[in-house]
Amino acid sequence: MTSLLPKSVTITDDTMREGLQIESPDIPVSEKLRLLDALGETGAKVISIGSFAHPKWTPSMACIDEIAERFVPKPGVKYTAAVFNKKGFDRADAYYPKVDVRGRRFGTHVELCDSFARRNYNRTQAQQIASMDGAVAGAKAAGAEAASVALGNPFGSNFEGPFSLDQRMDFLAMMIGKWHDAGIPVTRVSFLDAMGWNMPHEVRETMAAIRDRWPKVATFHMHLHNTRGATMASFYEALMLGATEFDTSIGGMGGCPYCGNGRAAGHVPTEDFVHLCHEMGIETGYDLDKLIEAASIAEEVVGHALWGHVSKGGPRPHRNEELYPVDMPFVESLEEAAHFRKGPGVYDGQISPWQQGSALIGGAQA
Q1: pLDDT at 361
Q2: Cα-only R_g, the chain
Q3: Given a cut of 50, is residue 364 above it in pLDDT?
Q4: CA pair distance 311, 65, nearest whole angstrom
Q5: What angle, rounded to 10 degrees, do the helices at 165-181 and 132-141 form?
Q6: What is the DSSP string of 296-362?
Q7: 315-321 CB contacts, 8 Å cutoff, 24+ apart
Q8: Using the 8-state DSSP alphabet, how is residue 249 labeled?
Q9: pLDDT of 242
C-alpha cells in the first residue's frame, strides 16, 4: 500500500480535559493552572482547558469557570473546551475569545455502541441518528461548504463486543449519505474510540476502505484510547495513510468513567507521539524538551507516576553533546534514568562497570 505520510500533523493536547477529568477533584486550581501554563510553553497549537460539564457527573471539572477566568493565555495557542449541550456552550462562550468554542465544525456523530451512547451521553443510538436530519438542515441553512462525520467506538465495545468493517462502513454510509443528499461534501472522518478497542490492522483497513469509497475525505482525526497498549501502532498506521489530526495527553493521562476501564483507558502520551513523529520527519510544532518538563510537572500535580516512556528514558540522543558518557556508572532507578535532563548528579554513588585503562566493561572481562 502506498504511503501517504504527512509532512506535518496537528496534535491536540487533551491533558486538561480528558486527563484531569479522571483524576482527583481535590487537586487545587493553582496546581491545574501551573500545569496549563507549562503546556502552553510546549509549542502546542490547540489546548483544551477542560469541559463545561455538570459537576455531578464530572466532579474534577467543577472548577472549570475559575480556570477559565484565571489562566493566562500564551501567544499562538488556541484554547478551547469541551461542551456537550447549549448550556455548556453558553458557559464556555462567556469567556470568548480567551476560550474559543465557536470554531466548531458542521458534523454528525453516532455511536456504534448503543450501550455507551446511553451511559456516556444519556442518549440512545436511535436518538443520535434521529438528530442528524436537523443537524444537516441547520448546517445547510448556515451555508456549510463541507462536513465532518464521527464514529464513536467504531472497533468494538466492552458491553457489546467487536464491530465489523461492514458495520463501520454502513454507519458511515448512512451519515455521509445524509450530507451528500443536502449537497454538502464530507471531507473529514473522526474516530472516537473511548473504549480502546483499536488495533492497527483494523485502523488500516478502515481508512483504506474509506479512501477508496469516498475519495473526497481528505482529513482523518484520531481520538483513540490506549487501553490495550496498541494505540501507538494504530497511530503509526494512521500516519502511513495520511492522518493529520491526533488527540493525546501528557504522560498518557486520561480515561472514561463510563467505559468500565476508568483511568486505565488512557491516551498515547503526547511526548511519546511527538518523539515518534519527529523521528519520522513529521513536523508537530512541539518542543520535546518542554513537553518532557511538562510531563514531570503533571506527575507532581496528580501525585502519581504517569505512563509516558520518553519522559522517563529520554529521547534518542542524536547530537554529540546528547550522547551518554561511556564511563557512566550503573543506572537503575527512574530518578537515575532522568540524567538526560537532570545531569549526572542523579547517579552519583552508583557502582561503575568501567575501569579506566582496562577492557573490563559491564562486569565481564573482554
Answers
A1: 47
A2: 22
A3: no
A4: 31
A5: 40
A6: HHHHHHHTS----SHHHH-PPP-SGGGSPPTT-----SHHHHTHHHH-GGGGTT---SB-TTS-EET
A7: 315/275, 315/288, 315/340, 316/275, 316/279
A8: B
A9: 97
First to last CA, the chain: 47
281-296 mean pLDDT: 97
What whole-number distance in Å separates Cα of residue 360 and Cα of residue 366?
Answer: 6
Grid cell at residue 216: 473526497
Could you tell me which of 229, 280, 225 has the C-alpha nearest to residue 248? 225
d(CA 92, CA 114): 28
pLDDT at residue 1 in the model: 54
Q: Pick from 262, 254, 222: which is nearest to 241 by CA? A: 222
Average pLDDT over residues 97-122: 93
Sign of CA dihedral 180, 182, 186, 189: negative
Run of H or E residues at 5 = none
Burial of 231 (0-12, 13-18, 19+ CB in 10 A): buried
> Could you tell me the three cell numbers for 208?
483504506
Helix runs in the chain, H state only: 20-21, 29-40, 64-70, 86-93, 114-121, 125-130, 132-141, 165-181, 200-213, 231-240, 270-279, 288-302, 310-313, 334-337, 339-342
Cα(265)–Cα(255) distance, integer angstroms: 4
Provide the pairing of β-strand 245-248 with 10-13.
parallel
3-class SS letters over 256-290: ECCCCCECCCCCCEHHHHHHHHHHCCCECCCCHHH
